[in-house]
Amino acid sequence: MLRVSIGRKRKCFPRIVSVLILMISVRKGGCPSKLPDAFLREEVYLSQVHLTCQNFIIKFILNDIPNSINIHLSNGIRQDHFGESNVYNDLKEKTALITGSGKKTGIGYAIARKLAESGCNIIIADLGKPGSPGDSVKTGTWEEMAEIAKNLKDEFSVNVLPVYLDATDKESIKIMVDSVKERFNNIDILCNNAGASFGVPNTVHTYDEDAWMKTIDINLHGVFRVSRAILPMMFGRPASIINTASRAGKVPPIFNGAYAVAKAGIIMLTKVMAKELAGAGIRVNAICPGQIATDLEKWRFGLEASFFNSTIEEREREMCKTIPLGYIGLPRDAADLVAFLASEASGYITGQAINLDGGQCMEL
Ligand SMILES: NC(=O)c1ccc[n+]([C@@H]2O[C@H](COP(=O)([O-])OP(=O)(O)OC[C@H]3O[C@@H](n4cnc5c(N)ncnc54)[C@H](O)[C@@H]3O)[C@@H](O)[C@H]2O)c1
Q1: CATH code, residues 88-356
Q2: Which DSSP string corresponds to 209-259?
Q3: Is 172 touching ligand 1 by the criterion CB < 6 Å?
Q4: Which of 175, 183, 206, 241 has the largest count of CB atoms under 10 Å?
């Protein structure tokens, strides 16, 4: 319970006044002078600043709330520690296919690991080759996929199959399905997690058309294509599909339009599929991560850092001020949510797009 004594209120008064002055100066455009004008005009920037101010006020007024969480943080990112969370016994001996899981730093790998820990057989599906020159983020290589497969098999005694997959290529999906069928009769859990962003930062009217199409193709049509190809292996028993959307699919970001449009599309696709497949006992949900510490997130903060003439660490610290819980999430946070959605523990949940963002997005 929170109590603010009268003496404390008196002490807080000058602080509240200074915060109000700061907020008024921000409203009038008194933000740090190095910010470009175009960015200052953006409502999104102002709303971030307001949230920063709100957090600032909360910290000033309520600074007697213990802040013990910070002991686990390093520059706003918690330290990873696999192996301490719950496992779901009903997932034992199920088979899960996870796209974009061939890289140890990514969300897909964390999902694969968590499901393997729960006793699932795992299919690691990824590009299996280095990205093209100019690609924003490194991709899952075959060597890394093979190593992941071996490690998961050794550690959790489950079957693990690494397979090549380019979610933008129908032929590649067909070859993947054929190799999966050789090893497994059916799929119980499909995690459409592969994703990437091309051609950013750009506004809609300056966006390169090919980069726009490529971004929508991998993020949105990739989910459509892989789901269609895998569904015949899911029918006939209860199953779960979990699509990785994004906070960007709900709250419009600037300069990353194709990605945001694709992620919003994934949310609607999730809901359409959930309705269509409910009768077949297949639940379909999406997760909407905010900031999760991966290569993709580092790359995005790198772009921002060069834009603001700042550092990745500074940008991350700024971002943390807009996250009510105050820190950037880890891939394992996404994996914990996915395991829940895969398990019967979430048996009455379908057609939902669940935020995973430390409270950044709190729509009704
Ligand atoms: N990290 C975040 O903060 C964040 C936030 C919101 C949403 N997401 C989403 O989470 C998912 C995973 O992101 P991440 O942060 O782990 O990124 P990441 O770049 O680390 O991993 C993406 C994976 O997808 C694979 N991939 C890319 N194109 C592919 C293709 N055509 N076919 C098959 N695989 C392909 C890559 O090789 C890589 O292994 C993505 O869908 C991303 O959009 C991430």
Answers
A1: 3.40.50.720
A2: HHHHHHHHIIIIIHHHHHHHHHGGGTTTS-EEEEEE--GGGTSPPSSBHHH
A3: no
A4: 241
Rounded Cα gap, residues 154 and 157, in angstroms: 6
Residue range 302-321, pLDDT digits in tens: 999 998 899 999 999 999 99
pTM: 0.85
Q: Report d(CA 107, CA 137) in Å as an integer.
A: 14
pLDDT of residue 78: 67
Q: Is 207 a catalytic residue?
A: no
Contact 243, 283 (CB under 8 A): no
Catalytic residue among 88, 164, 207, 259: 259
DSSP label at 351?
A: S
Centre of ligand 1 from the C-alpha of residue 45, in Å: 25
Q: Are 98 and 191 in contact (CB under 8 A)?
A: yes
DSSP assignment of 111-168, as one string?
Answer: HHHHHHHTT-EEEEEE-BSPPPTT-SS---BHHHHHHHHHHHHHHH---EEEEE--TT
For a ligand 1 pocket test, name from 77, 80, 99, 107 the mutation site with the most ligand atoms within 8 angstroms of its C-beta. 107
- Ligand 1 neighbour 169 (Cβ under 6 A): no
User: Do the bridges between strand 189-192 and strand 95-99 make them parallel or antiparallel, or are there none, so unpaired?
Assistant: parallel
99 close to ligand 1 (CB < 6 Angstrom): yes
Question: Residue 53 and residue 42: Cα distance in Å, rounded?
Answer: 17
Could you tell me where in the chain the CATH 3.40.50.720 domains are found?
88-356
CB distance 183 to 161 below 8 Å: yes
Maximum separation of any 2 CA atoms in the chain, in Å: 73
Report pLDDT digits (tens) over 156-197: 999 999 999 999 999 999 999 999 999 999 999 999 999 999
Bridge-based pairing of strands 239-244 and 282-289 is parallel
CA 304 remoteness from chain centre = 18
Give the H or E element holding residue 98: strand 95-99
